[in-house]
Amino acid sequence: MTNQFVNLKVGIFLLLGMSFWGCSQSNEFKGEEKATLTSPPNVPLPITRNYNTKVIVDLEVVEKTKNISEGVDYTFWTFGGSVPGRFIRVREGDLVEFHLSNHPDNKMPHNIDLHAVTGPGGGAASSMTAPGHTSTFSFKVLNPGLYVYHCATAPVGMHIGNGMYGLILVEPKNGLPKVDREYYVMQGDFYTKGPYGQRGHQPFDMEKALKEQPDYVLFNGSVGALTGDNALKAKVGERIRLFVGNGGPNLVSSFHVIGEIFDKVRIEGGDQENHNVQTTLIPAGGSAIVEFKVEVPGTLIIVDHSIFRTFNKGSLGMLKVEGSEQKDIYSGKISDSVYLPEGGAIQTVNGGAVKVPVAKTKEDKMAFGKQKFEAICAACHQPTGVGVPHAFPPLAKSDFLNADKKRAIHTVLNGLQGSINVNGETYNSVMPKLDLTDEEIANILTYVYGSWGNAGYSVSPEEVKSARSEKSTAPAQQGH
Ligand SMILES: [Cu+2]
Fold first, then answer.
1. d(CA 393, ligand 1 centre) in Å
2. What is the percent of the chain where pLDDT is above 70?
């Protein structure tokens, strides 16, 4: 009771103070500064100025191959070279001038949707950027909070699934309460052709992504990004603040720290504060700010409490707390080994292969092909096959497609990379290899050839099978 009363009084005092302070603030911007961006798990220092300014953010998109796990490579698409992308820290009322650069070596166009933006697409509408280009746009940060940003280029799920997300903190005008340490942790789910732990370079798997069945669920982009030498660090008695985000693309996180209770959670990264929380839900494309004091030494384990993800798919981090024992709070021996993963192997339960109906007539092929096309190809080539200018070539009335049926089969079988010319336009991008059966490819191509004014060819599973068995996987390229 007393406590509540005191809180109320403090609240009223703060309210009065804030509105007074708000009035005295002009809407003008004083000067300009370049934002300091940090890679995870680091966070830029708190903002100390008490006026609005113009903040210049330079962010470069880099497509690069890195470890997703020991011995396993993955080609990530990143904002600034890391997954999650660089942490951006601004102050409520600032004007942000954003420069998004797409590195010339990149293959894909990219853009950015910042949830902190008030305006079309969160900036995506003004930031579509081809490789070797820079887009500039500006926005005023009207609302304080912790916001996700992500790429919103089609297919959006694939860009996010390849690691294109990060956090932007808009500090309230009066700042956040002081703590001893701040860290940046962001969860994401990843879809690879091979199962968890399979060595070598693993391509993105669109089908698993559509089924929402990730092979990896990770904090900060790789297995072990926050364990061992990479563990977060703290000392007994310190107050810790974690800026936690969830990039998805699919899963919701049940964020929990084993052996701690969150003293405070700013729910969904907004103003509302909850207290004494064990597990906080972080939606895909959402965030939370969690705070706690570390009272005893030992290793705290950071998990998604949807726990198979933690022990079999990688969502396990550590916060190592050093200092002297506090036997009155916790008496027992604390060991790092207790919660280590049980081992990577995912058990496979053999439920028997599912029988897919076989297309008997051309109508069947068209219908099955349409369904698959809309589920897989339409994300890039669009449901009516018109493509996206400068990014995804058209399939409708495509001279490239209609000139060579065998090449089209190879394209869908093996993917396609390099410069091609379609209806007079040059495309130099990457179509991923998709994991489809002979039957599926035959149906899809029969549908594509039978639609939108194309040549009308029928493609049989046997033709796909024989193309698959051919040694040459490189599809015939057109001369320049
Ligand atoms: Cu992108």
1. 17
2. 87
- Collect all residues with Cβ–Cβ distance below 8 Å to 426 and sequence separation of at least 6: 419, 420
Give 429 Cα–ligand 1 centroid separation in angstroms: 13
How far is C-alpha 338 from the geometric centre of its chain's CA atoms?
30
Looking only at Cα atoms, what is the longest distance across the chain? 82
Q: Residues 6 or more apart from 455 whose CB is under 8 A from it? A: 401, 402, 405, 449
Compute, in angstroms, the gap from residue 159 CA to the centroid of ligand 1.
Answer: 5
Token look-up 């080994």 returns 337
Q: What's the pLDDT score for residue 181?
A: 98
In this structure, are residues 437 and 419 in contact, taking their beta carbons and an 8 Å threshold? no
* Predicted local distance difference test score (pLDDT) of residue 109: 92
Cross-strand pairs, 216: 190
Over 50: is that where the pLDDT of 5 sits?
A: no
Q: Residue 408 corresponds to which tokens in the numbers above? A: 């089209």
Mean pLDDT computed over 226-246: 96
d(CA 321, CA 300): 8
Question: What is the 8-class DSSP label of residue 56?
Answer: E
Q: What is the DSSP letter of 236?
A: T
**Residues, CB-to-ion distance under 5 Å, ligand 1:** 110, 151, 153, 159, 164
**Is the preceding omega at residue 155 within 30 degrees of 0, hence cis?**
yes
Q: What is the CA radius of gyration of the chain?
A: 26
Q: E strands, 151-191, where?
A: 165-171, 181-190
For position 379, what pLDDT does the model report? 75
- Length of the chain, in residues: 480
Q: Report pTM.
A: 0.69
Pairing status of strand 298-304 against strand 316-322 = antiparallel
Quickly list DSSP for 245-280: EEEESSPPEEEEEET--EEEEEGGGSS-EEEEESEE
Taking Cα atoms as reference points, which of 377, 349, 351 lies closest to residue 440? 377
The Å distance, Cα 245 to ligand 1 centre, comes to 18
Q: How far is the CA of 342 from the centre of ligand 1 (A)?
A: 35
* Mean of pLDDT values over 208-225: 96
